[in-house]
Every structure is written in C-alpha cells, then in structure tokens.
Amino acid sequence: MNFTISKRARTISMALIVIGVVAALIGILGDHSEHHQRTWASLFVNGFFFFGIALGTLYFFALQYVTESSWSVMVKRVYEGIMSFLPIGAIVVVVVLLAGAFGVNHIWHWMAHETRVLDEASPNAYDPVIAHKAGWLVPIFFWMRTIVYLSVFILFARWFRRQSLAMDQQTGDTLLANHFRNYRRGVAFIVLFAFCSTAMAWDWIMSIDTHWFSTLFGWYVFSGMWVSAMITALILVLYLRRKGYLPQVNNSHVHDMGKWVFAISFLWSYLWFSQFMLIWYADIPEEVIYYQIRINEHPWLLWGMFFVNFAIPMVLLMSRDAKRNPRFLITVATIIFFGHWCDVVQLVMPGALGEHFDGIGTLELGMLAAFLGVFIITVLNALTKAPLTPVHHPYLDESVHHHT
Amino acid sequence: MANKVVYAVYEDPELLKDAARKLVTAGVKVRDVFSPFPVHGLDPIIGIKRTRLGIVSFMFGITGTSLALLGMWYFMIHDWPMDIGGKPSFHFYQNLPAFIPITFEFTVLCAAHGMAITYLIRNKTLPGMPPRNPDPRTTDDKFILEVRSEDNGDIDGVVGLLRGTSVYEINERQY
C-alpha cells in the first residue's frame, strides 16, 4: 500500500514553515550579536539536530542489516523515509561551516584569524592551546574530513535505499544474495560510522569550545542522535499506523520501538553523566569552564534537559503497558524530542555566543518550527515513493508474525 | 481410578504451538510445557498469566538504590564526614554526583541477584531441589506438552486429539 500525504499533514507542515520563518525573522531582527552570530548558531543547532536524526536512523538501519534483525523489516521504509532528510541537513550544516570558514560568523573561533592565532610573534593574538591542536584543527584537513564524513553518510544512505527498492522486485537466490550484500555493506558502514561520527562531533561541535576537550564527547553526541532517531521513527510509525497504513505493524513492533527509546535514553544519560561527573570530580580549571558557563548562566536549560531526557523516559516508559499504549508513547516521545533539541542547543549556544546567549528565544523556536515543517514534508514525501510495507525480504514473514 | 498424565513430545516449537492452539480450542486444559528455550507467543495460548518478574525486579532495584544512598549518606556525611578530592561541603546533595556510580552499581546488583534468586525459587529449581522435568530431552531439542486427567475428564479423547497433531511421540504415565 502506498502512502499519500493527507491534506491536513501538508497544511500543518506548511503552517509550521510559515510561522517558523516569520518567528525566525522577528528573532533575526532582534539579534544584535556580532556578525549575527546567534542567527548562525541557531541555524546550526537546528540543521545539526535534524541531520542527526537522519544520521542516527541511517546508523540504526545499517545495524538492522548487521544483526540480521527480522522484527524491523515491517518498518524499514519508515527508516528510509527519515534518512531522506540527510542531504538537506548536510547542506545546512555545510553552509554554516563555510560561513564560519570565511569569517561571516565566528562560531568556530579557531577558523578565523587562523594565521595570527598560530603566530608566536604576535603575543596578543597567539593562542598556545589552539597552536597545540593545529595538527588536527587546520582548515584544509578539517574540510577533507568533513567531505569524507558527508560522502560516507550520503553515499551509503543512497545505496541502502536503492538496494532496498530493488529488493522489492526480487525473489529467490537474487534476493538472498542481495540480503547478504546488505549485511556486508552494513558492517562496512558501521565501522566507517564509528570513526566518522566521533570525529564529526569533535570537529563540528567540540571545536566550538576550542580550548576544551572531552574524550567521550563523540559517543555522547552520537547517543543523542541515536535516541532522537528512535523517537522520530516511533512517532512516525504510530502516526502511520493510526492513519491505517502499516496494517501489519502490531503492538509487539511498537513495544520494541518503545524499548529502543527507553534503552537509548539510558545510554545517552549514562554518557552525559559520565562526562559530567568526571569533570566535576577532577575539578581541573580548563575542563570545568565548560560546565561553569552552562551551570551558572543556563541552569534551567542544562538541568531541565537532563531531567526531561533521563527521568521522563525512565519513569514513564518503564512498564510494558506504557510501551504498548500509542497515545501515551506519542506524548512522552514528543516531550523527549524537545528535550533532545534542548540538548543540542546547550551543546552549541553557550560555546558559540558566550554570555550573549540569554536562553532559548523566538529565533531558536522559530527555526525549530521551520525545520520541523521542512523535515516532515521531506520525510512524508519520501514515504510516498515506495510501498510502505516491503514487498520482498527474506525476513518479511518473520516480521509479520513478530511477537514478544 | 488413578490419575493419568500425558506427555506429548514435539520436535519444533511451531508444531507445538499449533497443537496447543488446537487443544485449547477444543476446551482442553494444558497443564504445562517444557522446552529448551522460551517459546515466543506460547503463554497466551495455554493461558499463562503475565509474569510479575518485572515488578519484582523494580522492587529489588529500588531497594538497592535506597540502601546505597542511605549507606553513603551515613558513611560519608553523617557518621564520619570525609573530605575527598577537595569536596568538604559535607552536604549530601552537593556530593551527590560522586555517589551515583555506587548507587547505580548497587541497584543493578540487587536487581540482578534478587531476580535470579526469585526466578529459581518460583521455578522450584534452587540447587538441590528435586527435578520436575519429565524428560531430559526437553533440555536438548524436544518440546513437551503436559496434559493431566485431573484437569480434563476425558483423557483418552485428549490423546486422540494429540494424535491428530504433528506429534513425535506420546507418553502416558499414572501417578
């Protein structure tokens, strides 16, 4: 059965885009930070958040191939739909990075005045910490890496999608051979992804706070993307099921997707807390500065988002009945979705703006609404392109009878 | 009349599930099933109530959390205040992040051990308990469905029904 976008969904996404753009414009007019830094940073926050959702989904999709999971076959088209946002998110991220490289914004302050910062002869500009990291944080190498990450992600996403559509027409030995090809490509992707996602988090986000570093930062950002992806997929599957599409998705599938949201919320909380606790305990000035600005200036944002992303899934999604109740799930998932957006805000904003960031405002929320609108319309549009239930897959029958 | 117990042996969990479904539809009460691994989807067919092991594990976990926090408050704050790593505030909540790893570990420890012991007691499989398994082959590759005459009046009719399923062998015993 093919999916068609309902008029209501189209109107809502268009309304989100219009309201979002208007609110963002109002926010931009009120943005008096130097170089409109706040506008650029908000753009990066939202671009990266939705890019992360698509990337987390791509990773999870490959993981299903690697583990040869059968339950997720019924919902694999939903994952493919979310993956379709990857190029758009990548473009936004690259635009902000390019603007940073050309000095239009100063979010990554190691990029600008690069020569002076590294020049020991000019004592006012010389920065020994950045000079020490110059082997890695040097523009040419940075851009080579960024190109590698994005090509790996986008090429694999396209290949997986093409392969998945082709498998709909195949049976017998061809189908089986392609199934094992997916498995091998999935393994290759996971290995590449392990490097790319970690280094990407250092390059794009950790280098905003150039002087600061944390060794598990990459995993923390990755777990945030992963859980956001799980939330988005869950909401989308519940929406489609309610609309009467995906008739073969039963409560066990929904239960499993709920389990993933629950489990990855814990992974995220575990990594967040590990990073926080080690820095808090050691109390070394160059490390605690990262948390000082966040705790002193934005305590509600930091503790609030940690409470929402940790305590709410823990308490509300613990029981089996909660994970089988669509209404309840969708409510909780929407709250955590917003919580993880706040996580990305607190990752980027305090570092990019310093004391000029005075909390989430019209600008950030407007851009969130606009991006959400574009995201919904892109994903739903991708869902219309292929049958929502895969036609042929070695594990299709097993997935139909999935029961936990 | 002596009571009779019938053990129907199957070679595949799906065949067993089909047979159980057929029996239950005919109004037969299946007493138990013995299998080498958990058979998904069997419980609702033979009318086994949902496990409460999850609630038990939550109780054990919350006990661990409370004990760990209470213990560390007593050891580190109340009874013998400690200054470790330059954190001499002696306030429980200000030192809380340092207590979280132990709390987490103790929660897991209590939940895991409590659950394992509860499971063994509930299944009557604590070390030294007499085995209740009717046939050692169910620990290898066979699946056994148990029907008792005290639950079903017409046990011969049940055996007839069982013969109509893809059964591997049927054993009857008196007890």
What would you note in describing this structure?
The complex is a heterodimer of chains A (404) and B (175). Chain A is an all-alpha fold. Chain A is built from 15 helices and no strands. In chain A, helix 2 packs across helix 4. The longest helix of chain A is centred in the middle third of the chain and has 33 residues, at 172-204. The two termini of chain A are 26 Å apart. The mean pLDDT of chain A is 92. Chain B is rod-shaped, with a radius of gyration of 25 Å. With 175 residues, chain B is α+β, with helices and mostly antiparallel strands. Chain B folds into 2 domains: 4-50 and 137-174, 2-Layer Sandwich (Alpha-Beta Plaits), CATH 3.30.70.260; 55-122, no CATH class. Helices cover 46% and strands 13% of the residues of chain B. In chain B, helix 3 (53-79) packs antiparallel against helix 4. Chains A and B meet through helix 10 of A and helix 4 of B.
